[in-house]
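haha ok so turns out i had the wrong file open the whole time. this is the CORRECT one, sorry everyone. sequence first:
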Amino acid sequence: MAHDTAQPAGIDWNDPHAFHHDASGRHDEHDNLHPHVTPWQHLVLVLLALLFFTALTVFAANAEAWAVSMGVHITHFWNVVIAVSIAVVKATLVCMFFMHLKYDTPLNTMVLLTTLFVFGLFLMFTSIDLGKRGMVNPIRAQVIQPGGNGIGMVKGGGNLGANITTARKKQAVERLAAIIAADHGRDTPNEEDLAEANREFWFEFYHHKVEDHHGEIPPRHPDDTENVHAEWIAHHLSELDAHRTSDASHSRPKHGLTPGLFDTEAPHGEHGRGDPQAGEHAENPAEADEADGEH
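then structure:
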């Protein structure tokens, strides 16, 4: 036996959430067929506003650079506040007018705001993690950089004052300079000792790089402030030319002219090379003279 269930009064079951009701509360049957069309004048005004705030962003960056050049220090906090404020205003204009959230159902705005809120939670927890690592371990409080930051690498908790690789290279050069100074009878290295030690260190450094990379010439290292790399390349290439020869598996070119190529006389010790008969005449000069007399 079927029973008719009475529907509560005041509820439109075709649109229970009242997403498509007009101002009087009645259901609009043509709401989906006639979406809101923003006048082009409004879109032009929004575009001009976005261009204005973009120019304001550029002006703020240039103003900061000018203030720094004048000796005025602007903290990182105010940089973030100004940049984020301009970005929020621009994003709001785009969402309201270009994405039609101003004229759309409130549900879409709630979805957007919820998404931004969850994204903000991810950023907040990430920032807390990065900003508070120093409370657990001071070494982790610094920004990761190539070669390390040298924090806590000295016995007793001191710092190296530079990244680990740069500090170790400097220490190696100082040890070489001390050895060079001792060889010359000096207790303290002078500028010449340091320059020679620096040259020897980088020559050895680039030589090992070539071996590690199977003969490939390494680029100049950022710590090579004296550009020993250029001198090493010239020295390395000259050694390669001196020892580079062709074999059965590789054909290696030679630069320049072959020595003695255009000489009028054969070089000493080269007579008869490649001519077996000439070699026989050179070994028996008496027989060669008799043969000439008979002719």
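The helical segments are 40-69, 76-98, 106-131, 164-183, 191-212, 228-243, 276-283, 285-294.
again sry for the mixup
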